[in-house]
Sequence to fold (236 residues):
Amino acid sequence: MNSTGAPFSDIWWNLRQLRHAPASWTWAMLVIAIHALVAAFGGPNQTPVGAWFMALGLNREGIAAGKIWQLLSYALLHGNAWHAAVNALFVLLLGSRIERIMGSRTMVKATLVGILGGAIGHLLLAPDGPLLVGLSGGCVGLLLLLTTLSPDSRMLPLFVSARNLGIGILIAEFIFVLIDPALGLPIASVLGKFLVSHGWGGCFQMGHACHLGGGVAGWAYGRGLLRVPRRLVKSC
Fold:
């Protein structure tokens, strides 16, 4: 996020703060390390990695069978190197801002809240399909926390207010959830089928329900933090 002053000076300030973001680096390195291990064993479609994905990835059948850990563990796995790299970058850039503003503990809590919110969103709203994996719910949760804590800031590179960016993301994800042809909603799916027929079917391979759930969770967490009174003087 960018508030006032020269945009490029703020970019360098954002990069410098990465040196003081231990929790963000830990999340990012954990994502990369786990995916490197997955790749070393041949990827999700190979033994024994396929069994890891079945045990740790999120789906309704797993939760119904009592695999409650999937509500969090799905975020540690990624489908490919690009997926892992993008999420690691996002958690690093967004998380470091939160660590700078609110501290490492809040950053870790916010990531977990986003992951859990993403899992709930997926279980409630997504059509049946492949396992859900990835840290995207946590990343969107971090983003919505930032936009909630500092709604009047400007967000690079779009130069829109954080408030409008947060609202826009939630609306966009909600629309993509509704128009997913696999969900089969009578009117909304017409638009989804139109996008698929014009080569945009890849849009529905992303976990929009997870993103929506993670974003709502991050927003709610931010609203809760804003309501907590901060004591400026410690009495004795």
Q: What stands out?
A: The chain has one domain: 17-226. The two ends are 38 Å apart (CA to CA). The beta strands are 154-155, 160-161. The longest strand covers residues 154-155.
